[in-house]
Amino acid sequence: MPASCRALPPLRDRKVRDLIRRKTSRSYAILGIGWLALAAFALLVPVWKHKAPGLLPLALLALGSFLLSEATLIRKGRPLLFERGLFFQSLRSNAKVRAVVWASTLVLGIIFATQQWLEAELGSEAVLVNFAMVRGKLMEHPLTWLSGPLMHGSVTHFSSNLLLLSIVLAIAVTVVRFRALVALFAVANAAGGAIQLQYGGAGYQAYIGISAGVFSLYFLVIFLASLRPRAFPLGLQKALLSTAVASICLSEVFSPSAATLAHMAGAIIGLISGAVLFQVSKPSSAWRGETLLG
Predict the structure, then answer these.
(1) Which of 273, 118, 258, 245 is nearest to 184 (CA)?
(2) What pLDDT is recorded for position 56?
(3) What is the CATH number of domain 95-294?
(4) pLDDT tens figures, 79-133
């Protein structure tokens, strides 16, 4: 059995299977109910203000309904979703995965808190000029290739990027070295920002946000899961692809300053990295669903 999965009890035990199934189903159900509550809130607030609600409530409603339907299927014991839930259970028991996710969250949280403090002291415009990737000044301030993408426009912007990053990073670190992931993340952020500023239109004067790097990791894992399907649970690449595409589309619909070109550049860089730069470790070092399921 892989070292990363030794903390799991033998899954031939029906009680253990049922326990994991119930926990996974409950997690999906809680998330689904939360998204449905947000959908109701997003619908009622505009109505209360006598405005059209827009498409956001429908998107949240669709996401919440999807999660609740998956919770129902897991509870009924569908093998595909149970295997996926078991995979995430193995990630939660992996000390390396927990350390990487929590350390990344802490570092990005400190950076965002520092940004808020600087904006309070110097003003938002001064912070953007000095630390963001600014059109026409990239060669004059090369450090902004690193600092710019690590900044965010709002708490919502930061939280959504951090959530997406935490999900994919927990998976990617099981098959690709963390140093390689950091390098890919930094390169995709810098390249995505530069492409967005160069070809994104005259109205796009500054670039911030880690979304290009996040989507590079998503498409890296999607490519690897397609290349080595036995290294991941069945259907994982489809679930990640749906998450990435939905995130890109929602940002297009609801954000007037969505970095479309940066998102696409990050996705392409992730695919190229998976095809050319990285070697996947043997499936047994990441996931052995056929062994754990007994």
Answers:
(1) 273
(2) 65
(3) 1.20.1540.10
(4) 556 666 677 777 777 888 889 999 999 999 999 999 989 888 888 888 888 888 8
User: Distance (Å, rounded) from C-alpha 194 to C-alpha 134?
Assistant: 9
Domains of the chain, residue spans? 1-93, 95-294
The pLDDT, as a whole number, for residue 184 is 92
Contacts 24+ apart (CB under 8 A), 275-284: 275/223, 277/180, 277/184, 278/176, 278/180, 278/220, 278/224, 280/175, 280/176, 280/224, 280/227, 280/228, 280/231, 281/175, 281/231, 282/231, 283/228, 283/230, 283/231, 284/2
H-type helices in the chain, by residue range?
14-48, 56-75, 79-92, 95-122, 124-131, 144-147, 155-172, 178-199, 211-227, 236-254, 260-272, 289-292
